[in-house]
Amino acid sequence: MTDEELMRAVCDGDQSAYQTIVKQHLNSISHFAFGIIGNQNDTEDISQETFLKLWIKAEKWQPEKAKLSTWLHRITHNLCVDYLRKHGNTEAQEHVDVEKEVQADWQDGYGVSEDREKQGKLLRKVINNLPENQRSALVLCHYSGFSNKEAAVILDVSVKALESTIARAKRTLRKQLSGALRAPSEETSASSDVVNH
Amino acid sequence: MKTLEEFIHLLEIHGADRNKWPDELRQDIESLLAEDESAFSIFNEYALLEHRLDEIVVPEFPNLEQRVLNQELPARAQSITDQLLNWLIPTENLTMRLWRPAMAACLPLVFGIVLGNFYSFGVNSEIDELDYWDDELALLAMSAIPESEAP
Question: What ipTM describes this predicted complex?
Fold first, then answer.
C-alpha cells in the first residue's frame, strides 16, 4: 500500500493502516525526537503524541506538498520545540564551557576509548549544547538522511537558511571537538575508515 | 570552487561524503583536494567529525512500539462536508431521512422570501401605501353612512 492509500484508510478510521504507518516510521521519528531532546522518557511521549496527531489530523496531510515522512517529522519537530519551550531547553541553556569540558574528557581517555557509549555521551554533550535549530538541522541531515531541501520543509525555513544553520552547527562542532579531531592516533585510525585520498 | 572558504562552506553544507556533493562541483573539489594540502587536511577533519557523529549510540525504545500501537485512539472528527451530509441525510430513522432533505429543500424558498422582504432589487413602488390606505378607509367610512345622513 502506498502512503496515500494508507492515509486515506486512516481518514476512514482504519486502525490497521495506522498500525502499518507506526511500524514504518516509529524508528525514524523516535531517533529524530531523541536527537533534539536527548531525553529517553520525553522522546517516548513525543513519539506517541506524533502518531496521535497523525490519527487526528490525517486529512490535513497534502501528498502533493510533502512526503508522509516529511510531514511526520514536521509534527515531531513542532512537538519538540513546544517541549523545549515548556521545559526551558535546560541542557542547551546551561551555558557550560563545553569546549573545555570536552577537551578535558578527551584527555581523560574518552576519545581514545574503545567504549563507544562513552564517546557517544561526550558527543551528545556537545550536540545538546547547540541551539535547537542547529541541532534539528544536524539530526535531520546527518542522521535521518533527509536532503537539505526536505529538511528545510520540515523546519519550515528556506533551503538557504537551512544550509546556513547546518554550516554554523558543523563549525561549532568542529571548533569544540578540535582536540578530538586532531588527536593523531585517532585521526589515523578513524580517517582510514572514511577518507580515500 | 575558487577559494578554500568556499570549499569549507561546501563541506559544512553537504558533508564530507563525496556522494552528497553537487555533480557540477565534484570535479573541482577533487582537483582542489589533489592540489591543496590544507584543503585535504580540512576535508579530513570534516570526514573525522562525521565519523565521530556516526558513533553516537541512540538508545533502544523497546516498549515504545507497543505503547504507540496500543494507545487509545479518539473517534475521528468528521470533516465539515461529512457533518453537513450527515445532517442532510441522517441514518438514524426514516422520518429524519425524509424530513431533513425536505427542510433543506425549503431553505432557498425561505432565503428568497427574506431577501425579497428586505431588498427591492431596484424596483420602486409607485404606490404610496399610506395614502392608499387613507383613501381606502375614507371610502369605507362613506359607504357606512346612511343615505339620509349623507350631505
Answer: 0.76
